Amino acid sequence: MTRSRFVEFSHSSLYLSVFDDKLFGTAKTRQSLAHTRAMASLSMPFSATFCGFTRSKKNPACAFSSFDSSWISMASSIKSSLGSSKSAFMRHGFVLQASTFTGFFSKARSFGVYARAATEKTVHDFTVKDIDGKDVPLNKFKGKALLIVNVASRCGLTSSNYSELSHIYEKYKPQGFEILAFPCNQFGGQEPGSNPEIKQFACTRFKAEFPIFDKVDVNGPNTAPVYQFLKSSAGGFLGDLIKWNFEKFLVDKNGKVVERYPPTTSPFQIEKDIQKLLTA
């Protein structure tokens, strides 16, 4: 019987628990269960093929030894923000899925417009506020490929993501590419600053020239309308919830979501998909 491995964070250690497929029945049932579990923990289907183990207090034989650098940064960020409780997971429903070694995430579909987007609505139908509080109709980006990202200034993924985002923005902007960055403080309180502070941080430290918008909620009852649209257009494998800082949505020139990437996918890993949109 096939087994699925789930990685969970506690406040003291990273540990591995194993669940038997037989116990959970159908794939649909397991998916529903995993989504429920997400409200209290970090759950991640992990391929046993790539499990290198070290020791931990919870499971002396089971922990990780061979992560990529982005996962380590993310793990450190999560653990430091949680302190001695799992409340952040309960509030935000943090879920991560993984089944490949290089990206830790499997794509459930080939590159293209998400089938779930049954509505004719597009990103261009929304108006948002920029970092200075001014209304910005997103239809100004018609005809351009967009990468929409929820950003944070104090995350373990901040430095690498901001640096790579700035690089690809400079490289592809002349070809009709834009990055739309939305600060969010919902994940570990890692974007606590005011809008002026966020702007100064991004533009001074990382020379970010792409548009930065007003701080928003991306999960919960106060979710920004544009993020409600993005999530409904491209749900994650274990549900629609945004998982952590720096989750990414790639949008085509017509305002349709064509791909969704988990937080540990670096901007450089998205370049080929960006190129496809720009040459389409």
Short recap of the structure:
This protein is of the alpha+beta class and 280 residues long. Helix content is 28%, strand content 16%. It folds into two domains: 3-92, no CATH class; 123-279, Glutaredoxin (3-Layer(aba) Sandwich).
Q: What do these coordinates show?
A:
By secondary structure, the chain is of the alpha+beta class. It has 2 domains: 3-92, no CATH class; 123-279, Glutaredoxin. It is built from 8 helices and 9 strands. The protein has helices at residues 21-24, 27-37, 69-82, 87-92, 158-172, 195-205, 225-233, 271-279; strands at residues 3-9, 14-20, 45-46, 127-129, 135-137, 145-151, 177-183, 248-251, 257-261. The strands form 3 sheets. Strands 7-6-8-9 form a 4-stranded mixed β-sheet, covered by helices on one side. The protein has a 3-stranded antiparallel β-sheet with strand order 2-1-3. The chain is globular. One of its GO terms (molecular function) is peroxidase activity. One of its GO terms (biological process) is response to oxidative stress. Belongs to the glutathione peroxidase family. Residues 117-279 form the Thioredoxin domain.
